[in-house]
Amino acid sequence: MDRVALRGLKARGHHGVFPKEREEGQTFIVDLVLGLDTRPAAADDDLAKTVHYGIVAEEVVAVVQGEPVNLIETLAERIAQACLKHDGVREVEVCVHKPDAPITVPFDDVTVTITRSRV
User: What three-state secondary structure class fits 76?
Assistant: First the structure.
């Protein structure tokens, strides 16, 4: 399976279990790896035969900016399901970064990474 990766998609969302997270929001960063067969697109040099990663990026940002959830696990699942709606995408790895998570000790990042595929 071939891979198309999008790294560092940024969007502001209001996800989290604490009222301050819901009220003020924070930046979330999303990395995606889409699994698909790129051979038909390459053979014909045809965008219609692959995934349009610009559209995927816009949809992912809309999910992050959309309805708040408590957990970044839930957010990652919603993002994965949005990616799998694209016909050519057979598998997706989603990594959601929450660099401003409410943790009381110094840290660089909090991430949740999931992999989902068509059943």
Answer: helix
Amino acid at 46: D
Its sign, for the CA torsion 93, 97, 102, 103, is positive
Beta-bridge partner residues of 9? 30
Confidence at residue 98, expressed as pLDDT on a 0 to 100 scale: 98
Biggest CA pair distance of the chain: 53
CA 3 from chain center: how many Å?
A: 15
- Rounded to the nearest angstrom, the gap between the alpha carbon of residue 56 and the centroid of all alpha carbons in its chain is 9
49 as an active site residue: the answer is no
Q: What is the residue type of 93?
A: E
Q: What is the pTM of this model?
A: 0.95
Query: What distance in Å separates the CA atoms of residue 112 and residue 104, rounded to the nearest whole number?
Result: 19
Pull the structure tokens for residue 99.
């660099």
Residue 73 has pLDDT above 80, yes or no: yes
Quote the CA–CA distance of 106 and 100 in Å, as a whole number. 11
Q: Which of 10, 49, 85, 98 is catalytic?
A: 98
57-70: average pLDDT = 98
